Amino acid sequence: MSVTSLFFASLIAFAAAGPAFQNFVVQDSLSSVPQGFSKVGPAADSTTLNLRIALASSDFAGLEKALYDVSTPSSSNYGNHLSKDEVNAFLAPTADAASAVQAWLDSHGLTATKSSAAGDWLSLSVPVSKANELFNAKYENFEHVASGKTYARTLSYSLPSEVADHVAAVHPASTFNNPTSLKPVLSAPKTSSGISTDATPASCATTITPACLQSLYGIPTTAATESSNSIAVAGFIEQFANSADLKSFLTKFRTDVSSATTFKLQTLDGGSNSQTSSKAGVEANLDIQYTVGVATGVPVFFVSVGEDFEDGDLEGFLDIVNFLSDEDDVPQVMTTSYGENETDMSKALAFKLCEAYAAFGARGTSILFASGDGGVEGGQAQTCTKYQAAFPAGCPYLTAVGSVHGISPEIASTFSSGGFSNYWGVADYQSDAVAAFLKAQGTTTNKGLFNTTGRGYPDVSAQGENVQIVSSGSTGGVDGTSCSSPIFASVISLINDKLIAAGNPPLGFLNPWLYANADALNDVTTGSNPGCGAKGFTARAGWDPVTGLGTPNYPKLLAAAGL
């Protein structure tokens, strides 16, 4: 009998098993209300919670090994990306896990549905009274003070001993997501008459356009040829990509490209893409304009994720990666310009979401995330006494992109989030690079402010200040690593186009290849990312936790790809 059929079978033997599930084991417990939230009272028993239950995968270690095997250039399996069925076999829970969890839910008269193809994520809706019973918890209402939004959460939750080892995480429970997502900020908008469309040193030193990027990074203007190659652009929080703004952007900044060039739309979780000018999203327009406008000729998909889920970032991040990973033909690149602080998500949830990125990468997709805009304060600026990490940037199975500005030389942006994860240890592919940085930094600089054994990020960087976009009909500049991720993603997609045209597989998970070919990037050695009342990290020769390995050099990266 398959795992799936075991999970959804009617297990009559456990129909009256309620009393057997009474020995609870604490899974997570917070000693106080997280910073930025305040308790406002008990959650009503009738309040509906849309639960996600993550089951432990049967062989994630095997998936991780397979991911590195197909992503490491020196491996004989390099480029032999896994099929959907192969990935799901690693992620699926064991038959024993599926049976035990089903019996537990049956004892409460509950039925869950799969929310991932592998069956390692389950969804069900229950009232607060039932959630308190399921998890031996006390759900209360907590207000996020800055936004005024209120969430039902619990400071502690437990699981029966019979299922504790089989359940990796539960949400919503004790994770308090910051509802303020990473977005760029308008930076000194200029009128169209004051913007140069030429890639001259004088203009590109302060104002970034596609022509500047083509000149600076050697990005070709010739159109890609392979229709099977694509970029997925993640869209969240009702940020809509406006077609009229894209047309204006191409008319102004890519006169060599038809202004009718556009993108395709995919939606999930009730997502949409309103074309009302007033609803044009700065973030969405930025991401679309610097993929369509830089990755010339590469098909671009805007994947708009709606909000048909419990408040918080987990479901949006999780649902889009599961949605795309479940496609028969996955996109070769996905870029995401949203994120949060690592502490905003419990370690258990972060680990399980990171597993989904590993699975997606094993399918052959290059996953890029903006590293964040909080410097050493994390994905977003915050009050702190020790350096904070960003998420998902700290996940080792994706490529985190930091920000630089200027052209001669390029300089690290002060807001460019970078540092070391407190959840994941240093990845093997970067161990030498991180060790070299720590040795060069010395033992006294930043002492006691960061995790010296953590996964270092970002991995790479690209221009991220005063990047020109068109939004709601107006042209202006934006700042943020949100600019950097789609720019780097576009470079990778153009290399993939050449690889596919030559009959080769796409690059897939980038990091082992990037760290093995560090000389193919423009090293950035100037600038720092201060925060938490300290100086932060300083850009140095080689990898550093501000600009990573450096910015793209298309001709050198193309050669590193064997072309």
TrEMBL record:
It is an enzyme of class 3 (hydrolase). Binds 1 Ca(2+) ion per subunit. One of its GO terms (molecular function) is tripeptidyl-peptidase activity. Ca(2+) binds at residues 523-524, 542, 544. It is found in: Secreted, Extracellular space. GO terms for cellular component: extracellular region. The active site is at 283 (charge relay system), 287 (charge relay system), 482 (charge relay system). Its cofactor is Ca(2+). The keyword Secreted applies. Its EC number is 3.4.14.10. One of its GO terms (biological process) is proteolysis. Residues 207-563 form the Peptidase S53 domain. SUPFAM superfamilies: Protease propeptides/inhibitors, Subtilisin-like. Keywords: Calcium, Glycoprotein, Hydrolase, Metal-binding, Protease, Secreted, Serine protease, Signal, Virulence, Zymogen. InterPro entries: Peptidase_S8/S53_dom_sf, S53_propep, Sedolisin_dom, Tripeptidyl-peptidase_I. Residues 1-17 form the signal peptide. The keyword NADP does not apply. It catalyses: Release of an N-terminal tripeptide from a polypeptide. CDD domains: Peptidases_S53, Pro-peptidase_S53. Secreted tripeptidyl-peptidase which degrades proteins at acidic pHs and is involved in virulence. This is tripeptidyl-peptidase II.
